[in-house]
Amino acid sequence: MSTATRGIILMNLGSPDSTSTKDVRKYLAEFLMDEKVIDIPYWIRLLLVRGIIVPFRAPKSAEAYSTIWWKEGSPLIQLTKQLQQAVQTNFDEPVEIAMRYGNPTPSYAYDKLIKEHPFIKEVVLMPLYPHYAMSSYETAVEYMKEVHTEKKYPFKLNIIKPYYNNPDYITAFASHIQPYLHQEYDHLLFSYHGIPERHLKKTDPTKQHCLMVEGCCGVNSVAHETCYRHQCLTTTELTAKALNLPKEKYSYSFQSRLGKDPWLKPYTDFRLKDMPKEGIKKLLVICPAFVSDCLETLEEIAIRGKEDFLEAGGESYEMIPCLNTNPLWVNAVSKWIKENF
C-alpha cells in the first residue's frame, strides 16, 4: 500500500471524448453553460446555449476537431498526459490530471488519488493557465474547490497562482520561441484567447480601474492581480525583452471571440488579414494563453489563421507550438509544485 502523504493534480480546460457531433454537443453544452463563461441569467443562458449556439456550432466544431484529432485521441488530453508523465519523473508523489470540462473530471482525479494513496494529506493543484481570467483560471480553481468541499475529501488543497510574469515561466517561454527566430521573419504575433470586456470589469476588485482609467494596464493597481489583459500584456513585454525583440517586431492580439459583445482588441482574425497590407509578409504566431496545443491553436490559428494570412497576401506563416512538454517548462512546473508543498 502507498504511504504517500502528498499528491499533485495538473488541471487543463478539457476536450470532447471524440469528434462525434454527439460528444462535441455534450462538451459544448457543459462548457458554455458555465456561468463564468457566458455570464448571463441562467434561463437566458439555457435558451441561448441549448437552443441556438450548441445546435448550430456542434456540427461545425465536430468537423474542426476531426481536422486536428490524433489517433490516440484529443491533442489537448494527450499532451496533458505527456506533461503528467514528464512531471512525474521529478516526484515520488503521485501526479494526476483533471479537466474543467469533460474527462477526467475533478472527482475522478481526487478519487483516484485517495483510493491509491489513502494517507494523502495534501494535494497541490497546478492550473495550466498562465493568466487569470474568470472563464479559465477562476472557473477551474473554483470548481476544484467546490468538488473538494462538497465531497469532503480529507486532504488540504494548495493552489498555484497565475504565473504570467514568473521568471521561470518567461525563461521557458522565451527559450521555446528562440529557435523559431533564427529564420527570416517580419513579425511575431502573440495571439491570446479573447474574453468579453465586461469580464475585466467583473473581476476588478476595485470596480473603478479596468477599462475605466486611461492606460489602465500600465497604471499600478491591485486590479492587476485578476486582470487578464494586464497579465497578457505583461507576458508579451517580458518575453519580448528576454528575446531582445525591437518594438516593431512583435505585437499582441486576441482570438476565439463568441457573440457580438465587445471583446478584448485587437482581434487576431482582423490582424491576420491586415498585416500583409502593412508590409508584414512573413509571420510567426505564438499562443501564450495555452500551454498545451488544442483546437484553438491547431485548427483556429495553424489552419484557418494561415489561410486568412496567405489569402490576404502573406508569403510565409508559422504557428509556434505551445510549451507542451518543453523541458524548461516541465522543470518550472515541478519547481512550483515543490514550492507549494
Task: Kindly describe this structure.
This protein has 341 residues and is α/β, with parallel strands linked by helices. It folds into two domains: 6-162 and 327-340, 3-Layer(aba) Sandwich (Rossmann fold); 167-319, 3-Layer(aba) Sandwich (Rossmann fold). The protein has eleven helices and eight strands. The strands form two sheets. A four-stranded parallel sheet has the order 2-1-3-4, with helices on both faces. It has a four-stranded parallel sheet with strand order 6-5-7-8, with helices on both faces. Strand 3, helix 5 (134-150) and strand 4 (156-159) form a beta-alpha-beta unit. The longest helix is centred in the first third of the chain and has 27 residues, at 42-68.
Radius of gyration: 20 Å
User: Domains counted in the coordinates: how many?
Assistant: 2
CATH class of the largest domain: Alpha Beta
CATH topology of the largest domain: Rossmann fold
Order of helices and strands: EHHHEHEHEHEHHEHEHEH
Silhouette? globular
Number of strands: 8
Please state the second-level CATH architecture of the largest domain. 3-Layer(aba) Sandwich
Largest sheet: 4 strands, parallel
Low-confidence stretches: none
**Structural category:** alpha/beta
Q: CA-to-CA gap between the ends?
A: 22 Å
Our estimate of the beta-strand percent is 5-15%
Strand order of the largest sheet: 2-1-3-4
Mean of pLDDT = 97
